[in-house]
Design goal:
This protein has helices spanning 24-33, 48-57, 72-80, 93-96, 99-111, 116-119, 128-141, 156-165, 180-193; strands at residues 195-197, 203-205. The protein is mostly helical. Strands 1-2 form a two-stranded antiparallel ribbon. Helix 3 runs parallel beside helix 5 (99-111) and helix 5 packs parallel to helix 7 (128-141). The radius of gyration is 21 Å and the shape is elongated.
Length: 207
């Protein structure tokens, strides 16, 4: 039942399953969908395979797993599996500022779909050529990341690209950077997002 439920991947479903029904297979399936299900897994099933399944299901829970799992390979795996930008928030600043951490930050912003990863990068790291490249990569991945880009790096090309891909990105830009042309692009983008083409070829509008 766990594997057939298309909604279980975002829920801690094991808390609703009777203990006598908690087989190893059920626990593995649930943890692969949502790692936090591991809280309800019987102790006899808590081995490396179960912990890896939980990490695959919820990369941000790496810090909650036994310390032996906090290896460079595991941290990279967690970052590569995270599209919500939350994993960086679980790492200490000292790690993020290390050579390994700088690479993890790059991977995180490139895979992020929410724009939050850049917000978890220590501000002092958003300086120089590395900081600029990180900001550019983050905005290229998702326009939402532009809210965390230092004003110094908000070039015309970056702001126009962000607004053209997501009109709502304009809300995070300083007023002095919003030109008439950029405002027009945002309005046109918002309008296009609210319209669709009907089967007869005419234009309809979402309300």
């Amino acid at each position: 039942a766990v594997e057939r439920d298309p909604g279980f991947e975002y829920e801690e479903v094991l808390k609703y399953v009777a203990k006598r029904r908690l087989t190893r297979e059920v626990c593995l399936a649930a943890c692969r969908g949502c790692g936090w299900n591991i809280k309800y897994v019987p102790e006899k099933y808590l081995d490396d395979e179960m912990y890896r399944a939980a990490l695959d299901g919820s990369p941000e829970m790496l810090a909650e797993l036994p310390k032996r799992f906090s290896t460079p390979a595991a941290r990279r795996r967690a970052v590569e599996g995270d599209a919500k930008g939350h994993v960086l928030a679980t790492f200490p600043q000292a790690l993020l500022e290390s050579p390994e951490g700088r690479e993890l930050c790059r991977l995180a912003v490139e895979r992020d779909l929410t724009g939050e990863a850049l917000g978890h990068v220590p501000r002092k790291m958003l300086r120089g050529s590395y900081g600029r490249a990180l900001c550019e990569a983050a905005v290229a991945a998702t326009p939402k990341a532009i809210r965390y880009v230092p004003k110094l790096y908000l070039s015309k090309a970056m702001t126009v690209s962000a607004v053209e891909r997501d009109a709502m990105a304009i809300q995070w830009l300083p007023g002095v950077l919003i030109s008439k042309d950029l405002a027009r692009r945002a309005v046109e983008g918002t309008r296009s997002e609210r319209t669709y083409t009907k089967p007869d070829g005419s234009e309809g509008s979402y309300t």
